[in-house]
């Protein structure tokens, strides 16, 4: 049966490395990298994410600036805050927690963030940089998935990768990252004809759909690596998009939910914040961070 990819351990190891690098950054530049996190409203899941992001930032030796705004905040008000953060020299990374209340246009807010402080990698300029192979910021969840795959498999060159789900936040950037790692990439989605047959040819499967157990054990090629991005709240607790018991009997390696991709997402946010600070100050970081 499959090796379990321990995302918690991988994330802790990455966070330890980042904390070391933050120490070197601070001695070299006499300042700490700073991450500003903006939360609008009181969505409980968002509040949990924001809290753990703030904690991880501080644990890495960085500064965390939290901005909590009421649910009825206007778009103009939020745009003005983003503009202020864009020009604040103590802020290296800006993260506006999504989803935003209905009166605010999310894409207008994302467009307003300075692309060089966009540590979530959601700005179209960063999407374009990823698509064309330029340095920029890559969304944290797919970046974490790539790091898990590289740690589990080493070189990904020539492998057949199938990504299920084509969102701008996960599926699309995941496909581009795997392409950049020289995989042969298929991007499947809700209109894909014969998804089981498409998944069957994959050496690497990344499931990012949001439907519990969508990817069946019989679809998995024996020995394949399976990355389950899905977070579904069901009566039985948190489950992923992959039928874990069946898939883990045939896969070579698989991420659990929880404890797989989730912890890597936050570690990569901290990583992107350090990278943003280092680029601004011309500070050199290890190429593989
Ligand atoms: P989304 O709803 O934006 O996109 C879902 C995608 O799945 C769409 O592109 C759609 O075409 C595809 N899809 C829907 N039904 C399908 C079907 N039957 N067959 C094949 N494809 C189908 O979702 P998202 O933001 O990409 O998130 C996907 C999942 O990942 C969710 O469960 C979300 O909670 C989770 N997620 C986890 C993390 C993390 O840190 N672990 C981060 C982001 C999202």
From TrEMBL:
It catalyses: (6R)-5,10-methylene-5,6,7,8-tetrahydrofolate + NADP(+) = (6R)-5,10-methenyltetrahydrofolate + NADPH; (6R)-5,10-methenyltetrahydrofolate + H2O = (6R)-10-formyltetrahydrofolate + H(+). Residues 5-120 form the Tetrahydrofolate dehydrogenase/cyclohydrolase catalytic domain. Keywords: Amino-acid biosynthesis, Histidine biosynthesis, Hydrolase, Methionine biosynthesis, Multifunctional enzyme, NADP, One-carbon metabolism, Oxidoreductase, Purine biosynthesis. The keyword Lipoprotein does not apply. Residues 139-279 form the Tetrahydrofolate dehydrogenase/cyclohydrolase NAD(P)-binding domain. Pathway: One-carbon metabolism; tetrahydrofolate interconversion. One of its GO terms (biological process) is tetrahydrofolate interconversion. CDD domains: NAD_bind_m-THF_DH_Cyclohyd. GO terms for cellular component: cytosol. It comes from the Bacteria. Homodimer. This is Bifunctional protein FolD. The gene is folD.
